[in-house]
Amino acid sequence: MAGSNVTALFRASTAHSPSYFTLNRAGAGEAGQITDFCIPCNPYFPTPAMFAELGSRIREILTYYPSGADTITAELCQVLGLNPQTVAMGNGSTELITWIDHLLVHESLAIPVPTFGRWTDQPMETGKRVDMFLLREDHGFGLDPEAFVRFIRTRGSRVAVICNPNNPDGGFLPKQQVIGLLDALADLDLVIVDESFLEFADAEPAPSVAAEAVLRTNVIVLRSLGKNFGLHGVRFGYLVSNPSLAGKVRAALPKWNLNSFAETVVFMLKEHRQEYTDSLLAARRDRAAMTWRLSTLPGLTVYPSQGNFVFVRLPDGADGAVLRDRLLTEHGVLVRDCANKVGSSSQFLRLVVRPQQDVDLLQSALEQVLYGPPAQAYAPTVTPTPNWQRAASAGGLAPVRPQGQYPSAALPGAMGLGYTSGTAAVDRLVGRV
Predict the structure, then answer these.
(1) pTM of the full predicted structure?
(2) Which of 218, 221, 223, 197 is nearest to 209 (CA)?
(3) What is the spatial distance between Cα 133 and Cα 397, in angstroms, rounded to a whole number?
(4) Which end of the chain is more exposed for a tag (fewer CB within 10 A), N or C?
(5) How many CA atoms lie within 13 A of 16 on its CB side?
């Protein structure tokens, strides 16, 4: 692999990981050898038969204009049992976040961090004040709804956002707690519940608050189809709210904002509902198995997740950027280092849930890089300002330095770690003594 060219791509952008296509062009994906633990796709959907059908129709899909958004939205609503007047479809959830910001966020927005970066970056780009509520590592990055409400009152925020499950940690609030939060914030201009990964949750049946959003004047629920269907490249998502809010967003969206691939997939869904349901069950089983497998690695902290990814804290002294580069260049394993997420640091990775044979490869690669003999690492030459400092300067809570986040320099060679007890939980307890 073209190691130096590939790893330089990660340091060229502080906003997001380089795309799969960019990595391939740089030589990281020679002969299709990337095993992707970075992009949170559903590995079981669409099925091979669905991909074959899409492939057989590729010429017409690329040749002809799609139908209007109203036609595609009406079909999606028929499949999902929604009222089209309460729905707006966008070219990915990011397009909807952009329009929500432009149309409905006028002054300030409160958001727990770490979280999906567009919720912090988008309003700052348009001059809004973003109040960042720091999720505490010693509380497992869980959101305390009452503390979040107190924070909003103290800051005077006019819009609030929660992601449920949260990205990158997979933290989940039960439905009744979310409804309680909506009740407590009924006087705000807007409350947004981003449920982009909720289809992967199994903590309770029917956890969505979309039905609540329809009945309230200031609530929007955001859903992502690309993540659920394993089709990030298609770019489609939707929001649910009362007809007034949904109509305001629909009226602002560009004509033909949905592409022909999105239309084709939406119109295939009715015939493939069972395959989709089966894919979610398989992903949930994989998440449980992968969480257990990762928890056996010494010194690695694995946080409970309801998304199709898991959030892990590396052993003390390990650097996520070095680990990421070596996993890719030496083992063809692509992971998401979370150093560029506000409220996180380079000691955290988000790892997408994948089938067992891929987790075998990930575990073996982690063992070799974290605990194996020294090797030449691709170490960054500059240590950026930790994101817990950026969160404070942007108007959030006073920062508490996360445990194990050390300034300094990337470690040469292997990560400088060795096997100890062989049990992650024991290592963490011993480390606190």
Answers:
(1) 0.84
(2) 221
(3) 6
(4) C
(5) 9
Instruction: Please list, in sequence order, all residues whose beta carbon lies within 8 angstroms of the beta carbon of residue 313, skipping any fewer than 6 positions away.
Output: 137, 300, 301, 303, 347, 348, 404
Supply the DSSP string of 175-188, one letter for each residue.
HHHHHHHHHHTTTS
Helices assigned H by DSSP within 13-68: 20-25, 48-56, 58-63
Could you give the 3-state DSSP secondary structure of residue 108? strand
CB 89 within 8 A of CB 82: no
Helix, strand, coil percent values for the chain (each to nearest 5): 45, 15, 40
> How much is the mean pLDDT over the chain?
85
Average pLDDT over residues 32-38: 84
**375 vs 17: which has the higher pLDDT:** 17
Residues 83, 77: contact at Cβ < 8 Å? yes
Q: Give the total residue count for the chain.
A: 433
Instruction: Residue 348: name the closest of 200, 167, 198, 224 by CA.
Output: 167
In this prediction, residue 30 has a pLDDT band, given cuts at 50, 70 and 90, of low
Token pair listed for 291: 């969480």
**141-198 pLDDT tens trace:** 999 999 999 999 999 999 999 999 999 999 999 999 999 999 999 999 999 999 999 9
**DSSP element (H, E) containing 310:** strand 309-313
Tokens of residue 89, six digits: 């479809």
Say which range, 186-190, 227-231, 361-365, has the weakest mean pLDDT: 227-231
Closest by CA to 339, choosing from 318, 359, 358, is: 318
Joined together, the tokens standing for residue 169 give: 């940690």
DSSP 206-270: S---HHHHHH-SSEEEEEEHHHHHT-GGG--EEEEE-HHHHHHHHHHSPTT-S-HHHHHHHHHGG
Place of tokens 């056996």: 296
Are 353 and 287 contacting, i.e. CB atoms less than 8 angstroms apart?
Answer: yes
Give residue 199's identity as a one-letter amino acid code: E
